[in-house]
């Protein structure tokens, strides 16, 4: 992929031009970041796991009729995706109180929320991705009312699917972040799920022990980040049960 033109590089992924017009190659890096990139490290094998976990989730969503940018996995670290115009919003779904919600509202971590809450953040690293309301979104033209309705409807469907999928393997879906894009097909446009869904973008707790199985292991210096990601992959059937945790790139089920 080094010979392809680099389109964009973020904290955890690189986008290269794809083999056909309207496609991109999404490359998953091993970089782990937190607190708006103030904390940074390289975790060997993280990109491989996130690629496969995200592939697994997006394939299931595609089959359920949730439109996404995902086409297929190319190799251990890369996916072929449709090129979309990213809506400059992070959509956060909260099922259980954790993270910044506890800080802002004085809630105890682990409190079951009365219902799932959808929040929006403006994607702007230099501003710290501030929390915004629907009024901000439509007033500043980041998304129009119909696009926002589509985003909300898809987000609810995605939360229902993910909550059930993880619960079936003994994992509690605490919260997660997703992004959406505009997919143009001639003069027609539709909102589709983009970016990734992985332990980097979800809070996942073991239902029996409460152990964290996500990027909070890095944020909070708990250690065992790669082992936690591998355990998520094992429970989803992506890794063989007999494999031992390794950090130089796990062997994955084909």
Structure in words:
With 254 residues, this protein is an alpha+beta fold. The protein folds into two domains: 6-84, Phosphorylase Kinase, domain 1, CATH 3.30.200.20; 85-206, ATP-grasp fold, B domain (D-amino Acid Aminotransferase, Chain A, domain 1), CATH 3.30.470.20. Helices cover 27% and strands 32% of the residues. It has six helices and 14 strands. It has helices at residues 46-63, 100-105, 134-139, 145-167, 216-219, 225-235, and strands spanning 6-9, 13-17, 23-28, 31-34, 39-42, 70-73, 78-82, 85-86, 89-96, 112-122, 131-132, 171-185, 188-194, 202-206. Strands 8, 9, 10, 11, 12, 13 and 14 form a seven-stranded antiparallel beta sheet that branches. Strand 12 and strand 13 form a beta hairpin. Helix 1 packs parallel to helix 6 (225-235). The longest helix has 23 residues, at 145-167. The radius of gyration is 18 Å and the shape is globular. 33% of the residues are buried.
């Amino acid at each position: 992929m080094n010979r392809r033109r680099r389109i964009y590089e973020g904290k955890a992924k690189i986008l290269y031009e794809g083999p056909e017009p309207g496609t991109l190659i999404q490359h998953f890096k091993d970089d782990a970041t937190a607190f708006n990139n103030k904390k940074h490290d390289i975790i060997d094998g993280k990109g491989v796991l996130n690629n496969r976990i995200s592939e697994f989730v997006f394939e299931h969503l595609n089959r359920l009729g949730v439109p996404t940018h995902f086409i297929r996995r190319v190799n251990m670290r890369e996916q072929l995706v449709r090129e979309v115009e990213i809506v400059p919003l992070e959509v956060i779904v909260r099922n259980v109180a954790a993270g910044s919600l506890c800080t802002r509202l004085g809630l105890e971590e682990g409190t079951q929320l009365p219902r799932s809450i959808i929040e929006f953040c403006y994607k702007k690293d230099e501003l710290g991705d501030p929390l915004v309301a629907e009024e901000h979104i439509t007033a500043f033209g980041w998304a129009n009312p119909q696009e926002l309705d589509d985003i909300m409807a898809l987000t609810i469907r995605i939360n229902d699917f993910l909550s059930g999928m993880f619960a079936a393997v003994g994992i509690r879906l605490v919260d997660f972040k997703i992004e959406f894009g505009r997919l143009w097909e001639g003069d027609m446009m539709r909102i589709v799920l983009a970016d990734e869904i992985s332990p980097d973008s979800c809070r996942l707790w073991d239902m029996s022990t409460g152990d964290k199985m996500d990027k909070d292991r890095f944020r909070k210096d708990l250690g065992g980040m790669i082992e936690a990601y591998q355990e998520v992959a094992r429970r989803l059937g992506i890794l063989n049960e007999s494999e031992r945790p390794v950090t130089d790139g796990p062997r994955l089920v084909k």
